[in-house]
Amino acid sequence: MADAIIDDLSRPFPLTPRGTRWAVVTDRVMGGLSSGQLARTDWRGRPCLRLTGDVSLANDGGFLQAALDLATGGGPVDASAWAGVAVTVAGPAETYALHLRTTDITRPWQSYRAAFAVTPDWAEHRLPWSAFAPHRTDAPFAPSRMRRIGLIAIGRAFRADLMVADLRFYGAGGGA
Questions:
Q1: ∠ CA(57), CA(150), CA(36), 5° rounding?
Q2: DSSP 135
Q3: How does DSSP classify residue 143?
Q4: Which residues, including other chains, have CB under 8 Å from residue 11's CB and lie 6 or more apart?
Q5: Could you tell me the CA-to-CA distances from 161 to 9, 17, 54 in Å, in that order?
Q6: 62 with 69: CB under 8 angstroms?
Q7: DSSP class of residue 140?
Q8: How many CA atoms lie within 13 A of 20 on its CB side?
Q9: What confidence score (pLDDT) does residue 108 get?
Q10: Taking the mean position of all CA atoms in its chain, how far away is CA 25?
Q11: For residue 39, how many other CB atoms are within 10 A of its CB?
């Protein structure tokens, strides 16, 4: 089975081929002081989304996120036929996280999380479902009820600068 595109940058920003829209979410929704922006640009010869900003730990803050609902209207997407999420990224050397939310997640601080390292050269990261650890939830991860995905700069004060060339579900039936 071929990969399932989440965003290949084929639509005008901030739209995706799924008809959903990218948005920036920061800890300011909870009183934090982080700030950021998301734009379409080119990095080392490839079109990409670029998440930039400052992650601040002040006021119990600490995150900056490029967030995307997977279905219009925020409904669920059944991703259970796939093995995980693949993302092609580049930027100054830093560690970022990919957060998933399902319909079982009810609080803003809950998610399923996997970290990945970024280097200046474009690289694909394949994150299998088993790589996602629950954060502040007892609900088991259910890829059949995926609702939202987020690319996150989190947990420490730093200048975020993340380029994303594509994002997709990969592998059928748990394969790579």
A1: 45
A2: E
A3: G
A4: 17
A5: 18, 24, 9
A6: no
A7: P
A8: 22
A9: 87
A10: 11
A11: 13
Residue 16 structure tokens: 């995706």
Tokens for 105, please give them: 């997640």
What is the predicted pLDDT for the residue at 3?
A: 61
Residue given tokens 């982080």 in the structure block: 34
**Residue whose entry in the numeric block shows the structure tokens 């957060």:** 99
| Helices (H) then strands (E): counts for the chain | 0, 12
Contact present, 6 and 42 (Cβ < 8 Å) = no
Any idea where the domains of the chain sit in the sequence?
Answer: 4-172
| Residue type for position 157 | A
Q: What is the pLDDT of residue 1?
A: 40
Spans of the chain, pLDDT less than 50: 1, 174-176
CATH architecture of 4-172: Sandwich (2.60)
Token code pair at residue 8: 């290949």
